[in-house]
Amino acid sequence: MTVDETEHDASTVRTIFIGIMIGMALAAISQTLVTTTLPTMVGELGGLDHLSWVVSAYLLTSTVVVPFAGKLADLFGTTRLFQVAIVMFAAGSLLAGLSTSMAMLIAGRSIQGLGGGAIMTLAFTLVGHIVPMRERGRYQGYVASMFAVTSVIGPLLGGFFVDHLSWRWAFYSNVALAGVVLAIIRRNLPPDEKRAARGADLRGGALLVVTLISMMLVAVWGGQKLAWTSPAVVVLIAVALGGFVLFVRCERAASEPIVPIEMFGQRAVRTATTIGFMSGIAMFGVTVYAPTFLQVSLGVSATRSGMTLVPLMGCILVASTVGGRVMSRTARFKSLAVIGSGLLVVGTGSLATMTTRTATFVPSLYVGIVGLGLGLIMPVTLVAVQNAVTSERLGAATSVSQTTRKIGSTLGVAAFGGVFNTRVAAGLDEASADLPPGTAVDSLLDSPAAIARLPDVVATIVRDSVAEAAVLVFAVACAIAVLGFLVSLRLPNDELVDDDPNP
C-alpha cells in the first residue's frame, strides 16, 4: 500500500491506525487486567499455588513470541500474520473465559500471550509500513500514549467486571473487540505482496526459545520462590547463557536468521536498543516500589498509593505525544533521546532522596518527571531502529527493539526484587528482638495494617527498613538511567527519511 498525500489515503491510514490501536490496547490491557480479578478467579477455580502462573504464563509467551513474529512478518507478510495473531489472542481469551480449572485458565493465558505478544510487534511493524518515516514519530507517540492509558485502565476494568458482571467477562470482552479489529484490518489493509518462499532459521529459533524461557524463569523464580544459589536457578542461568552464545553463533551463519545480527553493526540500532533496555529496567524500579514506599513507609492507603502511578502515565502520555510531533516536524530524534534520558536520571535520582519524613505529594511529582523521560524515550528508540534498516528488515528490527525492552523490564523486576528483599531482611533482623512473641517477621510486609498494630518503636524500624530498601532501589535505577543517558549521547543524529511503505 502506497501512502499518498491525498485525503482519501489519509483517511484510510487513520482507519487502519484505529484498528491497530484497538488491537494493541487489547494486548496491553490483558497484561494488567487480571491483577484485580485474581482473588475471585482463585476462589472459584481453586489452585492458589498456581496463582502466579496466571500472570507469568502471559508474560513468558508474549515475550518469547516477539522475535518470531517480526521475522515471520518479513518472510510471509505483516497483514496476514497480524490477522492470525488477533485470532490466536481471541481463541486464548475464549479458552480462559470458559475455564473450569486453573490449568485450563493458564493454558488460555499462554495462548492469549502468544497472540498478544505478536499483536504488539506486528502493530508497530504495520505502522512502519503504512506511515512515512517522518510521520512515524507522531504515530508512535500516539501508541506510547495508548500504553500509558491502558496500564491504568486494565486494573480498573478488571475490578468493574468482578463487581458488576463476572471475571469471565474480562476475557469474553476481548473476543468481541478482537472481531472489530479483524473486520477493520481485513477491509482496509491490502493483501500482502507475494514473496519468494524462504525458510526461517529453525535451529536458531529453538535456541532463542530456550534462552528466553530460561531467562524469564530466572527472573520469575530467582530470589522469590527459589534462592539465587539453588540448583534449579543456577542451571537455568547456565542454560540461558549457553543458549545465548549458541544462538548468536547460529544466527551469524544462518541465511534467514530470526534476529539479523548484522543489524547491531549499525550504531543507531546498538544505542537505541541499549537505551530501551536500560529505560525498561528503570521504569519497573519506579512502578513497583514507589507505591510500596508510599503505602508502607508513609502510611497512605492502598488506593492512594496506587494513584501514584497516574502522574507517571499522564506524563508519559503528554511527553510521547509532544515528542512524536516534534520528531515528525524536525525529522531528528537524538535530542529527544538525550532530554528523555536526562529527565529519567533526574526523576529516579529525586526518588532516591526520599525519607519517611517526605511529604506524601512529593513522590507523585518525582514519578511525573520519570514519566516525562519515558514518554520521550519510548517512541524515539523504536523510530531510530526502524530508520536504520531497510523495509525488508522492518519486522525483525521492530521485534528486536520490543524484545530488548521486555527483557530489560523482566530483569529489572528480578534485580530490584533481590535488592529490596535483602535490605528489608537486614532491617527486620534488627527489629526481631523487639517484636511481640510469636510474630512472624517475614509476614510483616503482607499487611500494612499489621505494621500499624506493632509497638511504635518496632513499627518505625520496619517502616525505615522499607524506606531504605525502596530508596536503594531508586538509587540503583538512577545509576542505570545515568548509563542510559551516556549511551544516548552516542546516538547518531540521523535524519528521518521518508520511504515508500508497503506491507
Query: How many structural domains does the protein architecture include?
Result: 3
Stretches with pLDDT under 50, minimum 5 residues: 1-8
Distance between the termini: 6 Å
Oligomer kind: single chain
From the 3D structure, determine the CATH topology of the largest domain.
Growth Hormone, Chain: A
Kindly state the percentage of residues in helix.
Answer: over 70%
Count of runs of 4 or more consecutive helical residues = 17
> What radius of gyration results from the CA coordinates?
23 Å
CATH class descriptor name of the largest domain: Mainly Alpha
CATH architecture of the largest domain: Up-down Bundle
Number of strands: 0
Q: Can I get a quick summary?
A:
76% of the residues lie in helices and 0% in strands. It has 503 residues and is mostly helical. The protein folds into three domains: 1-199, Growth Hormone, Chain: A (Up-down Bundle); 201-255, no CATH class; 264-503, MFS general substrate transporter like domains (Growth Hormone, Chain: A).
